[in-house]
Structure formats: C-alpha cells, structure tokens
Amino acid sequence: MDLKLKDKIAIVGGASQGIGYGIARTLAAEGAKVAMTARREKPLHEAAETIRAETGSETLALPADSRRAEDCSSVVALTVAHFGGLDIVVNNDGAPPLGELTSFDDHAWQQAIERNLMYVVRMCRAAVPHMKARGGGSVINITAISAIQPIPGFGLSVATWDAVIGYAKTLSLEIAAAGINVNTICPGYIETERLQKVFAADGQNPHLVREKLAAEIAMRRIGTVEDIANLVAFLASPRGNYITGTAIQVDGGLFRGLR
Length: 259
Prior knowledge:
The chain has 259 residues and is α/β, with parallel strands linked by helices.
C-alpha cells in the first residue's frame, strides 16, 4: 500500500535507537524526509546515515535535549529551514525513573513533567503553525501502556503521560479544522534496549522474565519496533488523516480495560 508519504517532512524524537529509530526508518522507507533528534550526538549521526543509505531518503541529524525549551524550538526551526516546511511530528523520548510515588521529591516530579508533558507541549506549539501553513499535518505522541493501565513503580510516567493524552485530545479538537490530526500511541512490551534491561533486572533469569512478560500478553509475544512504526506511518499519512484524538494501545492484547 502506498501511504503517499513521499517528500513529506517529519521530525522524530529519540531517533538514535529503539522505537524512535524504527519510526524514522519506516517513514524514510515510505519516502519522507526525516529530521532525527536525540541527546547523544554520535549514535544519532550514525543512525541518520544508516537510514539514508538504506532508504535513499534524506535525513537530518539534530542533536537536542527534549527537556530544554530552546532545543524544542530549535529543532523545529532548523527542520523548516533545511527542508522548507513540516508535515509530521513524532514526539518520542525515554521515561522518568521508576520507584514508589511517595519517594520522589519536587525535583524528580519537575523533571518528569519537563521530559514527558512539556516536551510535547513545546514541540506542538512550535510545529503547528508550520503545519497550518502547509494545509495540514500530523502529530503523534509515543507514551506507554502504563498511561492507560497503571503499573506500580511507574507512577511518574503514568501521571505525566496521562497528562499528554489529555493535552493531545484537547489539541486535536482545536486544530482538526486545519487538517491536522493528533493521536497518542501507548505501546505495550516492545523489543527494545530498555526492555532488555527489564529482562536482566534484579539478577533474574532473562529468559524466565521474557516468558513471564509474554504470558501476560494475549498474543503471547513481545511486540516489535515495526509494530509501532507501521501504525505511526499510517496515522501520519493521508490514509489515516480521519483518525484524531485517540489513544491507541499497541500491545498484543495486554490492556484489559474496555476503554
């Protein structure tokens, strides 16, 4: 299926590895021009070069810290200056520390808010005017299944990513008439470097941890980066433009709620 993404201009956060890298690669494979951001400069440039070589699409490596307001503004400005516009923004970054909620002080909470919620707020604030100028666009936020099905120990992420869902829903109502859709994806257990750390946590047998996690999933398998990236590409394409204001779990049936 041709998703009609050729020459669309995208920004993808956390793109040096994991889900962000997979999303950038998939969009580039569909013909999009992709600005890739991450904090670590060397791995980011290597990732951008690899995707450029594999797909033939133009990539732009923009080292940035999503927790800094000036970096968010700069990423959007540099992307528009380099490519001539902006059609797609994928807000994706890491997660705050794990731990019991009552153990975190104000500084930890503020850092979590900056990393998760304010990152999305700032990127959207900078990007939406450029999308309006192009006649439409797509904003996609990557959170986690814990945002809609809380997990003990993940409270900083639960609270701040749930706020992202509320922000995105409201924004979707405000800018739908401009042809811009806004959606949030809530991945379940996905095969990434972060999940590998979970497999090896607390000295447990990684194989047994993997089996335990997979047993929680209706499909009985850990998800792949491509499972997330394919949905992002669809939502960002004209074929998915009528979908907006949603929070979609991509989890193989891990989520047990009705809504």
